[in-house]
Amino acid sequence: MMDRRIKIRHLQAFTEIVRQRSLKRAAERLFLTQPAISRTLSELEEIVGAELLTRGRGGVALTAPGEFFHGFAQASLSALEQGLAGIEEAGRQGVMQLRVGALPSVAARLMPEIVTQLSEIAPDLRLTIADGSHDHLTGLLRGGELDLVIGRLGAPETMRGLSFTQLYLEEVAVVVRPGHPILADPDLRRIGDWPVIYPPPWAAIRPFVERLLITEGVPLPPRRIETVSGAFGRAYMPGSDAVWLISAGVVAREVAQGQLVRLPIPTDMTEGPVGLMTRAGATASASQQLFATALDRTLRILGLD
Q1: Domains, the chain, ranges and CATH?
Q2: What SS3 class is residue 110?
Q3: Mean pLDDT (10-residue bins), the chain, 305 residues
Q4: Vertex 304, ends 298 and 305: CA angle to 5°?
Q5: Quick one: which H or E segment has residue 101?
Q6: Which of 92, 180, 261, 284 can bridge 288 by disulfide, Cβ–Cβ 3.0-4.6 Å?
Q7: Strand ranges in 133-227 using DSSP code E only, listed in sequence order
Q8: What is the pTM of this model?
């Protein structure tokens, strides 16, 4: 954890002295007296516990610890400047906006809490949330119609031009309504006896579900409804004997509340990374950085960090 005694003025003085190679010129640039900037540098050296600069007739020079610390000090000030510039730019343009694509498991599991957190840290942020398949959302992201997407890592061909930052691992759940006949003998090989809500070919979880069924010797269910729509599944399941194979995050709330029951079937092999997708090489905007803060808070609250 960073020592709270380190202030922005310490970093500004240190980096400006290095830039000017002179305490006198650095003091003039920062509108300080030379004793004041010398005292600020001494405070910083005392806090970090190392000599950062040597003074001589030729000016100042970085010590080994100073050279190491200098890069981080510059990066910290640069990040702060970018953040302030982003907020200033957003203020000139009006209300900050962010367009987020959320795959089904994220839309159900993370987005409600993310929105709650954003309402606290950025109440004026105008958020647009789009849902849909992995191919659809990543296509919108590449085309600049979305700023970021959260969901499962897709096949390599769907990730061209995008960067992916993993957040957590998620598995597929097999769920039914309470009182379903299969609960008396929860064997995955029996799911073909009932309709099955099954991921379509373009769904990111489809390969994981296929791997699970092949490993367990279960044929492709003949009576299947191919969709990853959480809205459809939640509406259809209570009055049906269907078996639903879906990302655990989509039904986490319903399982916790007893509206759906998860079959006690090992699904570890269906685990896949869920992460944040952005356009490769793009600089994060102020609104994206605020979203990242809300996302970090949400992951801690849900125990996913």
Answers
A1: 8-93 (1.10.10.10), 97-167+273-301 (3.40.190.10), 172-270 (3.40.190.10)
A2: coil
A3: 80 90 89 90 91 84 89 81 62 72 85 91 88 86 92 83 92 95 94 94 90 93 92 93 93 93 93 91 86 91 86
A4: 85
A5: strand 97-102
A6: 284
A7: 148-152, 162-170, 172-176, 196-198, 224-226
A8: 0.64
